Amino acid sequence: MTDNLDPITPLKPTTDNNLPVIQALFGGTFDPIHYGHLRPVEVLAQQVGLKQVILLPNHVPPHRPQPEATARQRLEMVHLAIQDKPLFTVDRRELDRQTPSYTIDTLKSFRQELGEQCPLAFIIGQDSLQTIHTWYKWEKLLDNCHLLVCSRPGYESKLSTPEMQQWLEQHQIDTPNLLSQKPHGYIYLAATPLLNISATEIRLRQQQGLSCNDLLPPSIQDYIDSQGLYRQ
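RE: above sequence
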């Protein structure tokens, strides 16, 4: 990686009213970051009682084409999007990797910093839950974290096979308070806004010269324009 990115500050587990605070992670390419990323997670945080959500921009995503914007540009857009949102912070350890950003490796890295007893959650969308069985070492995910699932328009709540549905039902909880009482192992399906926004749509609009003001923060639109991103 050629960009000189800021160093990682190691995490320390914290408590609130004698209960461990859940450390929540949300990864993505963020090419670019948009309201479909931010707003559902903000609602999720209210439902679950999250104090902070750590955004993890990917460097080499294993399940999708490579980003059009550079790592530095995507990191800068994430910083701009959350500059007035104290819920969010950024960790760029995945941007340092030259190899694919496998979630299980990232979770183990955080586990080493936080210890075995700190509640750790990984936020995904309903679309990712449907294909989670294709992830690298997916069966180890719940050994390291809880899964917090945001709703996505057009996706079923049930999984594609009886075996995966059984896995979901074995781990699913309806009471988010349980998440802070155990370090990992639960799945919580959140009732978050169904925002039909995608980075693909934003990039297409940019190619066509159309406004994206309803899809992403104005600071991101200004940055995209200033950098000449997504024009081809």
